[in-house]
Amino acid sequence: MNTTLWIMQGLLAAMFGMAGLMKLMTPREKLLPKMPYMNELTEGRVKLIGAAELLGAIGLIVPWLTGSASILTPLAALGLAIIMVLAARTHIRRKEQGAAMNGVLGLLALFVAVGRLSGWN
After folding, report:
1. How far apart are CA 56 and CA 36, in angstroms?
2. At what angle do helices 2-25 and 43-66 cross, to 10 degrees?
3. Are the C-beta atoms of residues 108 and 6 closer than 8 Å to each other?
4. Mean pLDDT across the chain, nearest whole number?
5. Res. 120: pLDDT tops 80
6. Confidence at residue 119, expressed as pLDDT on a 0 to 100 scale
7. How many helices (H) and strands (E) are present in the chain, helices listed first?
8. DSSP string of 56-115?
């Protein structure tokens, strides 16, 4: 089970890391064509979401890998699951596609949180 959790953590960290960096490094106006929901968000909120995703990605790997403050890994996974619930809610409200992908990512993050808290090593 430990290997499965590590694979999930790696995949989630890669996806959230890329998404977070994109939101942090790209001006909101350049994101609008591919992400129309950004129209409802200020530049600061986009950067905040990007920072949360990037920190969550780091939190999925570093604490558990180093054995230092390893409780942060399931907390990071739980935080990312919450972000995905909120993202799915936005897509559903706007009648956009994307809620299903948010749901899958959220469930995977929840799986990691439960697995690491339960000690499925």
Report:
1. 24
2. 150
3. no
4. 93
5. no
6. 76
7. 5, 0
8. HHHHHHHHHHHTSSTTHHHHHHHHHHHHHHHHHHHHHHTT-TTHHHHHHHHHHHHHHHHH
For the record, the structure tokens of 28 come out as 């909101």
Average pLDDT over residues 20-37: 92
Cα 5 to the chain's mean position, in Å? 16
- Tokens 């990007």 locate to 50
Amino acid code (one letter) for 33? P
Mean pLDDT of 12-35: 94
Q: Collect all residues with Cβ–Cβ distance below 8 Å to 59 and sequence separation of at least 6.
A: 72, 73, 75, 76, 77, 79
Higher pLDDT, 40 or 53: 53
